[in-house]
Every structure is written in C-alpha cells, then in structure tokens.
Amino acid sequence: MSESRSVLPSSPQRRSLLAAAGLSMLGAPWVARSQSSTLRIGATIADTGVERFNGQGLLYGAKAYFDALNRAGGIHGRQIELLKADDEFNAGKAKDNALKFAADASVLALIHPQGTRQTAEIMKAVRDLPIVGPNTGATALHKSGAKNVFWVRTNYDQEVERLVKLADNLGLKRFGLVYPNDPFGQSVLESFQAALARRKIEAVGIASTPGTASLEVDAAARQLAKLPVQVLIMSLAGTTPAFYQAYRAAGGVSMCYGLSVSGTAANLAQLAKGNDRPFFSVIVPSPNAQKFEIVRQYRRDMKAAGFESESLVSLEGYVDAYVLAEGLRRAGPRVDRDSLLAGLESLSNFDIGGVRLNFDKHVREGNSYTDTVTIDASGRLIS
Asked: How do 231-234 and 175-180 pair as beta strands?
C-alpha cells in the first residue's frame, strides 16, 4: 500500500472550522503546523488504469479541501493527514487496502472508496471504521443499512430518474441503455428499468460492455446504432468517451445522456470534440455554478492547491472531505472512531454552501441533490 502525506487544500463552512481552530476569518492565512498528532484519513482509489481519472479526481478534490483547512490551523489544532493507497480499480486490492487502514488504530476514517464492487467488498469486510462518501450510487448498497457508511452522493435511482424525466418532458419516449456487465452496471440497469416502468415505457434497446474498465465497447455501440433510439443513457464511467465515439462512428444519432461518474475533466475534454455533446446527471452542482458558495470555495481551493482541471468528480471529492471534516470537528478534541460516527450523525439539515445534507442516527443517505448539465466546445460544464 503506497502512502502519501498531504497537507491538503481548502474548506467550505470555513467559519465553523476556523472557529474550531481558534482563528478568525480575518486571521493570518498561513499558520505554523500544529505540533499535536495528526488526524489520519485513509483513501483507496484507482491511481492507475482506465479509472484513474475518477480516482485522481476524487483525491484531488479532497486534498484541495484538506490543504486549505490545514493552512488555517486544522481541526482543534490538529492537521489532517491523507493516506493514499492505489487499488488499481480492483475489488480485492481495495478490500485489502481498507483492511490495512482499519487495522491501524490511528486511522479515523476511510474517504470515498471508488467503485461499486470495491465498495461492496469494503463494506462486507470493514464494520468499525467510518466510511464517508463511497463513489457509487448503487441503490442496494445505499439501502443496506450499514451503520458505518455515510452516503454523500445520491443513488442511481435518483440519477436515472432525473435523466428519464428530462427526456420524457421533451416528449422523447424511445430509450436505450448501455451498461457494463458488473455490479455497477447491473445497479443502473435496475434503476433504468424501474424508471421506464413507472411511465409504462419499454426500452428500444439495451446493450452491455464486459465491465466498467473494459474498452471493448464497439459491439455495444454497433448494436445500439442500428436501433431507433431517441435517448441513449450511457451508464459508463472512464470508458464513456470511447463508447460515445464508437457509437457515433457506427451511425448512432440519438441524444446521449451520461451519469455523474463519467464527468471527469479528461472525459469532458474528449466528449467536447464532437459536433453534439451529451447531457449529464449531477449529484453536486456544476463546478461552474458560482451561485453556490460551495463551488466558489472549491474553485479557490483547487487553484491554491495547483490543480488546474475542475470537474464533477473532484467537486464530489471536495464535498466528501467537507462532510468528513465537519464530523471530525463535532467529534471534539479527543476524537476517535466512535465519536466521529456521532459527529457525522449530528449533521442534520447541514448546509454545505447551497446544498443541504441530512444525516442522523438512523439516516445514512444524506443527499438528495440532482440536476442535469451539458458541456460547451471547450468541455466546460453548462447548467
């Protein structure tokens, strides 16, 4: 397990966090590193492979938040230390990484494990370590009742419903779906079928790829291109551009919608090259929607951290870090895993700068925010 220490970037709800550090908003922006022990947070992500852009995006967003928080004095005078482990988007390695973090009593929490299969394995293996913001919307996992898991993103039922409703309101009734034949894809397939069933609509075409990280997309693209689909939902992540290009090359003409997990900066840059561009569901505001305080803070902190590309995924990582940091603050100076769980449970009607989250002793799905965006010719998201 590779390990990297970060004195990480910025913080929403800055007033409460600075107050916890004993500083004012007008205090010096740079302070000496605390001599007290650090607050250690583990992260297992795909730092290599096809899904690395999602993994790195999540990590960059979290680092941007934590770095700014550390520069402001940390939480209760203690710095946050982010420990990274590359799981190569492999469920077994993700589980092993999580178990190593859980076995280290100094690690207080795990932030945004990446992927449906990976999260499922971690949830089965790790029960006493708080887990904040898994990067999957698999509804069955969200509804599993795991007490140590706090869901910051909405589930796929909500995302897919948003996309289907958008198309239905436009009078478009002929739907298609492409999904990877793995737990992530199966979850979205179920959400898609349920959304259509509520409207008494039957799908025109459904095709699958071998898996989330598989670039074998041509067969599914050719299959769907032959069908009279009006709206094609692409339930893909890092392979979205490869499928989209293959679909258009095969003669596919439908309007295309993507899920939030496909909204990496690298994906958006590639998808912007065509004459028409997909719409996306989002579970955080667009990184360009500066009417949201959370977005303005995110943009400042990403810039301060030296991260030039902004994306839905890195903003999701930033929000995950925001939520975890507030849980740590509420846990008090003598924080441990149990007090952190209590701190996270106290985040009821919690405003993160324009979006409200709701957790309590029984509720672990804290977010119901969804929206749709598209991109311009430069890959910039448009609300």
From this structure: parallel
